[in-house]
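Dear support,

Our group has been running a series of protein-ligand predictions, and this particular one with 2-acetamido-2-deoxy-beta-D-glucopyranose is the one our PI (initials K.S.) wants archived with full inputs and outputs. We had some confusion internally about which version of the output was final, so please treat the block below as the authoritative record. The input we submitted was:
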Amino acid sequence: MLLSSLLNSAPSRLLAVSSFIALALPALAQDRTTEAGEASITDPTLECTAYYYAPVGTALAAGEFPTVWQSATLLPNDTEGQQIWASIQPSVPTNIQPKGNRNSSLANVTYDAVADPDCWWTVGQAGHKCTTPKHNGLPNDTWNVPEPLTAGYGFDDGPNCSHNAFYDFLTSQNQKATMFYIGSNVMNHPVEAQRAIADGHEICVHTWSHGYMTSFPSSAAFAELWYTMKAIKLVTGVTPKCWRPPYGDVDDRIRAIAHGLNLTTILWGWDSNDWQNGIGGVTDADVDNFYSQFVGNATAGNFNSVGGIILTHELNNYTMSKAIEWYPRLTAAFKHLLPVSVALNISQPYVETNYSLPTFAQCHTTANPSNASTTSGSTSSGTGTGSGSGTTNTSGASAAFSPRVLLVGTLAAVFGAIAAL
Ligand SMILES: *[C@@H]1O[C@H](CO)[C@@H](O)[C@H](O)[C@H]1NC(C)=O
Ligand SMILES: *[C@@H]1O[C@H](CO)[C@@H](O)[C@H](O)[C@H]1NC(C)=O
Ligand SMILES: *[C@@H]1O[C@H](CO)[C@@H](O)[C@H](O)[C@H]1NC(C)=O
Ligand SMILES: *[C@@H]1O[C@H](CO)[C@@H](O)[C@H](O)[C@H]1NC(C)=O
Ligand SMILES: *[C@@H]1O[C@H](CO)[C@@H](O)[C@H](O)[C@H]1NC(C)=O
Ligand SMILES: *[C@@H]1O[C@H](CO)[C@@H](O)[C@H](O)[C@H]1NC(C)=O
Ligand SMILES: *[C@@H]1O[C@H](CO)[C@@H](O)[C@H](O)[C@H]1NC(C)=O
Ligand SMILES: *[C@@H]1O[C@H](CO)[C@@H](O)[C@H](O)[C@H]1NC(C)=O
Ligand SMILES: *[C@@H]1O[C@H](CO)[C@@H](O)[C@H](O)[C@H]1NC(C)=O
Ligand SMILES: *[C@@H]1O[C@H](CO)[C@@H](O)[C@H](O)[C@H]1NC(C)=O
Ligand SMILES: *[C@@H]1O[C@H](CO)[C@@H](O)[C@H](O)[C@H]1NC(C)=O
Ligand SMILES: *[C@@H]1O[C@H](CO)[C@@H](O)[C@H](O)[C@H]1NC(C)=O
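Confirmed final output from the archive:
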């Protein structure tokens, strides 16, 4: 059960098989079963060594979840899931067929991209992608934020096993963000997922297996969302109300399924393309250029009436290091760098109403956005962390929210303390 449930199909898990036995004894020195124990590990190799976490191991052994890192399907004996799917199904458009396959929704598809009858984001040109559904009863996607000089700050694809250095950095800056978690990663790295809550970040759904959502039959697309919501609830105690489609691949059929689950669809207006470094000819310099365009537009005053959402990743050491490298320039250029829900003034991000995020006014605010004065934190080409300047932690209110100091007991105690703020 242990190996089959935790050392699943993800390649990194397979690599961990041989070291598991060897590390089992020394690993006892580190507490791998609590959020605080895991968060204290500084060696990335140890961080990424598999461990057993009973609530996940038990649920997998009982067949309550699909196989991790495989396309999800709705389990026949999941009576709650079947019931909810039955209630949603009648409102899912039947005139939109699945497109392509899980690795590319564009594969072998004939589609009128000009008329774009399905409001299919994937076929749109940059800047003109469809986010206003064409089928009735569906809310618009969120791809920017209404507040001036505000950046919705979020990371896709976590929890990554080696994220402690990155989360330590965010905590050192009293910076919160939105974490778009993959259900399979949550099952493989449950106490790492708990760290997002303990640190005061927001968690949204990023599907079970990170396939192209428009490729899945409707009940399978439902399962990709449903089991990720259940995974996050199982390990963190909260149920998200937001999701982001992998690759932005969404159409009105998928939107209807997400809407039926009460999940808001969050896209982005700015793409760092950080995940693509080294893939398809994208270089580190290109990624710098994408970040630089976002910062440059802020400095040029182009966010003075409406803010933006940037896509970045908690995928690997490169993407997390890149986020740290650009952090000073983001906080110099924007007045507010916030989790997406906070940027939207939503302070109760979960189904469970006893958990709150800080309000817009309480959250991290920088004093001198570079459009408003002569600060030096503009788009320099410096590398390495801390190269920017003009970054400040000014807001007195931000000190009111530093949940890590509350990490004294169980996660439930943390929820209680946060909810009390
Ligand atoms: C549900 O079905 C799965 C197979 O799809 C099985 O492994 C599991 O034991 C079943 N669970 C229960 C509670 O019957
Ligand atoms: C998707 O890609 C994975 C590996 O990259 C491969 O194993 C799988 O067969 C592919 N699936 C489809 C439907 O093409
Ligand atoms: C497209 O269809 C052709 C013919 O059916 C097939 O050989 C090819 O593998 C398909 N390509 C993709 C990317 O699915
Ligand atoms: C959805 O977006 C469209 C286009 O921007 C806009 O006209 C419409 O008012 C929006 N609807 C809502 C409910 O915000
Ligand atoms: C922000 O505050 C944290 C602690 O509150 C501190 O560690 C960090 O260095 C500060 N950052 C800046 C840029 O002053
Ligand atoms: C969605 O929200 C409505 C209103 O709060 C609620 O009645 C419904 O049960 C929710 N649906 C799901 C799938 O949680
Ligand atoms: C603003 O962003 C656009 C891409 O959307 C880019 O072409 C332009 O150079 C950016 N402006 C600045 C001042 O960075
Ligand atoms: C900078 O942004 C603020 C807030 O939107 C705005 O009031 C101010 O006019 C801007 N300054 C410049 C120089 O564009
Ligand atoms: C997490 O990040 C580490 C460090 O870069 C990387 O080796 C690993 O493959 C990542 N894990 C996943 C599941 O992507
Ligand atoms: C990247 O990897 C190096 C070497 O293991 C490590 O020292 C550093 O903390 C990592 N950075 C991040 C952001 O994970
Ligand atoms: C969000 O909250 C801020 C601060 O409380 C307020 O100034 C602003 O008007 C609100 N914006 C929206 C869109 O509700
Ligand atoms: C929050 O509510 C959930 C049920 O909705 C409950 O399980 C949990 O114990 C509550 N947490 C606290 C700290 O009250």
